[in-house]
Specification:
The protein is mainly alpha-helical. 66% of the residues lie in helices and 8% in strands. The protein has helices at residues 2-24, 42-54, 59-66, 70-82, 104-125, 130-150, and strands spanning 57-58, 86-90, 98-102. Strands 1-3-2 form a 3-stranded antiparallel β-sheet.
Length: 151
């Protein structure tokens, strides 16, 4: 049964990823109607979201959470630091460990992106009935609850 469930989950993930990314995560584009917001690749956005949620995080843990190599994480963080969105520091207990945190500028950008995403998703949801929108919210909430158990 587990194998069948795994196969079904993979099919569903593969089926939902393209429309989700196409409609809700536009990595290399400025959000429509928000020319003041910078272009932000999705790994950069996810990195900032992880840092905002978890606070200061060491590079190894950050790379693991992002699902990228240490080398990729170093590049992503370097670009975020260069843009003033994140900052590096040495771990207080072990100075050889590099930690990363989101800056006030990064927090402000996330806030702007969040507000824009709410407007964008609100427009998308207008095509659904209130019942369908509530069902979508309930299902996504359930998915997140279950996926959190896998971490």
């Amino acid at each position: 049964m587990q194998r069948e469930q795994a196969e079904k989950l993979v099919q569903l993930f593969f089926q939902t990823a393209p429309p989700f990314r196409r409609n809700y995560i536009r990595p290399a584009e400025r959000p429509e109607g928000a020319p003041h917001l910078p272009r932000l690749p999705h790994h950069h956005l996810f990195c900032l979201l992880i840092l905002q949620k978890n606070g200061q995080t060491n590079m190894s843990a950050l790379a693991e959470r992002l699902g990228v190599s240490g080398q990729q994480c170093t590049r992503i963080v370097g670009e975020l630091v260069g843009g003033g969105l994140a900052e590096r520091s040495a771990d207080e207990k072990n100075r050889r460990i590099v930690c990363v945190s989101v800056t006030d500028k990064g927090k402000e950008l996330l806030s702007q992106l969040y507000r824009h995403a709410c407007e964008h998703i609100g427009k998308q949801l207008a095509a659904l009935s209130d019942e369908d929108a509530d069902e979508l919210i309930a299902h996504l909430s359930g998915i997140i609850k279950i996926l959190d158990k896998l971490e």
